[in-house]
């Protein structure tokens, strides 16, 4: 079977950008900057971007392009049978993330529909946790479904199915050609709306005012590396799969720069919308930014609705634009992961695309169900906490060890330089061989130490262990999949 490929370079680049830009860019980046030294945070952020971000993006593109396969197939060709497992763990870990990520996109769909009437009212916290999520008292009290969330989650999976089912050119490429310009347009609208509000400039000052004294704190550096890794969709086999569909003569290094920089530019841009709006809110309520700022879910579904209520004009329009932006950003990321898993199944079992996508969407949806129950948010929080380290960070570490230490990195480097517009030099070897594995190992060790000394989020131990066992289960599935031997190409 001939491998599908992208019709245009722009199609590939936009799809990779679509994967990278996600919910994290909208609600997490700005908060990280604000909390970790304002403009000064951009220093560790850019160091992380160049050392561990772009260099790994180049590596993942190179692996996919050189071995023309999904993550498991490529890892196998790179290092032999024993390495296929790394690729399976990458995509399985990614699928575990997608199981709850799609539910969050579902919340955004619910809020998009509510924005027409600003249905959340004054008590936005009560509305989110009580009316929409119907959050129960404890993680074991599942209490049935939050019906709207369940329906919206079904819609999200259906959309993923629709796009990936049609394949690279007709599905993923076309979708991103539409979604990416739309997303940037929505972001620009949000920025313009925000910066024209009174108080916006103070908000932006909070966002960017540099506090260089914080740079001495290593936690800030770790936060920067963690965020870069997540935001660029590394360590899930996504970029490997996308690059495997590139025609033979395709640039690698320059594309990796374009994708990574576009992603970070988007984060930076949206920061103005978020903090401009928060600045207005602080101004309107005569409060301090620290009283209104929040991170992740709290920012998007509690604080922002409140700010939207207060806007002097264009409330409904701005609300619809904001939640649509979340939906679009999220969808283009989940689509990429569904493809990464599907292509792994296609490569391994010689499965037809349609069958592979059906299986992935069905399994993914079944996994999502727990997060649509009334205890969903607890489990989302717990699984999210573990998977980022024992999925992405661990996979990234194994990937660089395999490619740079157990395989001859110069083979990949020569491959990159034979096709790329930009040639990678010594800096790349140093980044991939030494800096990245070192930093990822430190991240992992500190996280393990943290988990051993303190219960994350104050959850009871058995809840944390249950969350952890989902991840162990995923690893076992990955091992079984790599063990089976059928249709090796
Ligand atoms: N890059 C995404 C973000 O910043 C996160 C992400 C990476 C992701 N890979 C994914 C989400 C796969 C869903 C599926 O939000």
Automatic annotation (TrEMBL):
<keyword id="KW-0813">Transport</keyword>
<feature type="transmembrane region" description="Helical">
    <location>
        <begin position="257"/>
        <end position="283"/>
    </location>
</feature>
<feature type="transmembrane region" description="Helical">
    <location>
        <begin position="85"/>
        <end position="110"/>
    </location>
</feature>
<protein>
    <recommendedName>
        <fullName>Transporter</fullName>
    </recommendedName>
</protein>
<feature type="transmembrane region" description="Helical">
    <location>
        <begin position="316"/>
        <end position="338"/>
    </location>
</feature>
<dbReference type="GO" id="GO:0035725">
    <property type="term" value="P:sodium ion transmembrane transport"/>
</dbReference>
<feature type="transmembrane region" description="Helical">
    <location>
        <begin position="220"/>
        <end position="245"/>
    </location>
</feature>
<feature type="transmembrane region" description="Helical">
    <location>
        <begin position="142"/>
        <end position="163"/>
    </location>
</feature>
<dbReference type="GO" id="GO:0005886">
    <property type="term" value="C:plasma membrane"/>
</dbReference>
<keyword id="KW-0769">Symport</keyword>
<keyword id="KW-0812">Transmembrane</keyword>
<keyword id="KW-1133">Transmembrane helix</keyword>
<comment type="similarity">
    <text>Belongs to the sodium:neurotransmitter symporter (SNF) (TC 2.A.22) family.</text>
</comment>
<dbReference type="Pfam" id="PF00209">
    <property type="entry name" value="SNF"/>
</dbReference>
<keyword id="KW-0472">Membrane</keyword>
<feature type="transmembrane region" description="Helical">
    <location>
        <begin position="42"/>
        <end position="64"/>
    </location>
</feature>
<feature type="transmembrane region" description="Helical">
    <location>
        <begin position="175"/>
        <end position="200"/>
    </location>
</feature>
<feature type="transmembrane region" description="Helical">
    <location>
        <begin position="463"/>
        <end position="483"/>
    </location>
</feature>
<feature type="transmembrane region" description="Helical">
    <location>
        <begin position="12"/>
        <end position="30"/>
    </location>
</feature>
<dbReference type="GO" id="GO:0015293">
    <property type="term" value="F:symporter activity"/>
</dbReference>
<dbReference type="InterPro" id="IPR000175">
    <property type="entry name" value="Na/ntran_symport"/>
</dbReference>
<feature type="transmembrane region" description="Helical">
    <location>
        <begin position="359"/>
        <end position="380"/>
    </location>
</feature>
<feature type="transmembrane region" description="Helical">
    <location>
        <begin position="427"/>
        <end position="448"/>
    </location>
</feature>
<dbReference type="InterPro" id="IPR037272">
    <property type="entry name" value="SNS_sf"/>
</dbReference>
<feature type="transmembrane region" description="Helical">
    <location>
        <begin position="386"/>
        <end position="407"/>
    </location>
</feature>
